Predict the structure.
Amino acid sequence: MRGKVAPPPDIKPYEPFTYDNSTSLPDPFKPRKQESRNASRTGQNQPDLDRPKEELEDYPLETLKMVGYLYQHKVGHAVIRSSEGKLYTVKAGNYMGTNFGQITLVKETEVKIKEMVQDSAGDWSERESSLQLVE
């Protein structure tokens, strides 16, 4: 048996698009911020950007390690080692990490941190992180 196959469609030649900054089209290589529906939400959870930075805010959180715990003056302190090998003592209220991470709790085996991260729309949201004691 022989069947009939329809001929392939005509192929149109490719016409490249020339992007011109003078057009009203947005630049495809720059992130676009979506307009917020509620203007009062803008910067709702924004961290204090004018606050002086603490030393451990120069390091990404994943490069820091909890290596010890101290209890002084009825306050728990964690001993943190940076990627450079320097040791720091921190307590609840201190900041660490590059995402405006504030220490919320220091326990004998863990440090809990509340980070503030910005999404592509420019809104800020909280993220919980922790450092576990390294033995």
User: Anything to note?
Assistant: The domain at 51-132 is CATH 2.30.30.830 (SH3 type barrels.). The chain has a mean pLDDT of 85.
